[in-house]
Amino acid sequence: MRDEIDEYNERRKALRRRNFAIAGIVVCLVLLAGIFLVGKFLSDTSSLSAMGEPSEAEELHEVSIDPLPPLERYPVNVDSTPQGAAIILNGIATGLETPATIDAVAEVKNTIVLIKDGYETLVHNAAADTDDVSLKLKEYTEKFDKERFKEEPKEGPVRGQLRVVSRSPAGVFEGADVRLNGKAIAAPTPADIEVPANQLQHLSVRHVDHMDGVMFVQAIPFYKETDRREALVEMQKKRENAYAAVAIRTFPRDARVFMDDEDITGSIITPVALNRHFTIRAEAPGHEPFEQSFDAIVGTIDISIMLKQPVYPDGKISVEGGPDDATLYLVPQREGRESGIQIGRNGAASERTVESGPYLLRVAYGPHNQRGKTDLEIEVPENKHLRVVLSQQDDQIVIRSANAR
């Protein structure tokens, strides 16, 4: 009996020693893993800190581009109706108002932008060696956004607000002079200025230690603080190997962008030799193309390109005779206009105004768990009412008649 107890105690001691050994190994492994993770964390933190600091390799002045000879120029007379519009030539404010004589670049297209409060900003691409340019400005009609703003303003047009901020590769700095459409404003950067809402404006920012920066910018109507738009103008330090940098944003974002014949789609900043005259072209399916010339005689040129969709005349459409459980949709068939809209339920749609052109009239019918659809091709004519009558033939939905009047 005694031997059995001793043997049992020995087994317990051996088991205890083994458990202690396993526990020690586990603790060592945990400590080693902890040391590894702490080291990795410190390494990652140090890498992130280094990324957050300005890198010499990333700064714009590391690029070296030899400047070109000064551009050859010739005089052009510019006038407008009404007069008194600020003149922007190839992206640079002239500081002049119509009527005036400007120095355009010879033997190439020149882009003249006229900006006047109360009128739509006008962009004109003048043919090479044009001597006289006379343009008519269109009065700006403000459209009040009832969905965004609850109450329409009672006094005067709604203005926009811009906060102009100057920044270099080293970070934001203060004290740069600001010109709006060629006219100096009193406050240096950071400056809050009032501008016409929804109208393209031109900013020039100048500082003694930096090369000038320019920006085309547009503000939304200002009703509250969040409506103030920040115009962050990039500026380069003055240096020997100076060049111009072009920053481009497009709306829609998938637009293709070309500088002369070079595809620069997706480029955040494109370096350009000083004194180069170049043309920016942007295009996207279903939108009107953009084309504008620029002169690389400043440090940075910041361009926001908002491609417009073509405006087609209105027409009208109404539908009747569809299945009682059918929902009706209208799907545009012009390129760039793919999103459909619901126009009716219960197999009918009352008269409504839509853009003229080709559509699919989509009829969705049946129980939701086994819902079917039929697409019917139609054409909404300009300035007419298209009355569509549907019917069912051999379990198919067809157009019985489609009359425009």
Would you mind describing this structure in some detail?
The chain is mainly beta. The chain has four domains: 2-53; 73-136, no CATH class; 159-306, Sandwich (Immunoglobulin-like); 314-404, Immunoglobulin-like (Sandwich), CATH 2.60.40. Helix content is 13%, strand content 46%. The chain is built from one helix and 30 strands. The chain has one helix at 2-52; strands spanning 73-81, 86-89, 92-97, 100-105, 110-115, 122-126, 132-136, 159-168, 171-173, 177-180, 183-184, 191-196, 201-207, 210-217, 229-234, 244-251, 256-259, 262-263, 269-272, 277-283, 290-295, 300-306, 314-320, 327-332, 341-345, 349-355, 357-365, 372-380, 385-393, 396-404. The strands form seven sheets. It has a seven-stranded mixed β-sheet with strand order 11-10-13-14-22-16-19, with no helix packed on it. Residues 41-59 have low confidence and may be disordered.
Descriptive tags:
405 residues, mainly beta, Immunoglobulin-like, seven-stranded mixed sheet, 1 helix, flat
